[in-house]
Predict the structure.
Amino acid sequence: MIDPVSATSLAVELTAICIKAVKLLKQTIETMKKAREDLLELLNRTERMRNILEVLRTLLLELARKPHRDMAIGLNTDACRRTMNELQSLADKIAGTKLAHPLLGVVQWARYKGEAMELVAKLRSQETDVVNTLVIIGV
């Protein structure tokens, strides 16, 4: 048996633990929501880039069949390649963390978020470059 004073003290202690747990769980849920939004933004930007690159590939194949094949294309291929390699590296890291433990992926998101948002900006810039190239060569 426990006396009323000890029971009251225990109830206060356990209530404090519950309050801390609720706060932590709410923060985790918000982090998960934000991580999802950020990852969807990265996914959407990546899909847009893939589609634009596919249009560029198709157009370049058509141009290669025409007599003026010696046209120079003003596209920074090194920057594109670097961005795509960084994207693949980040995707591998995120997938690896999530496979190790799904909740660990959420916890580690803070570590990857800056890199992901930097990639979103790079993809946006690369997209602009490729679209400008498409416009110049006549799409």
Q: What stands out?
A: Helices lie at 4-64, 77-100, 102-137. The longest helix spans residues 4-64.
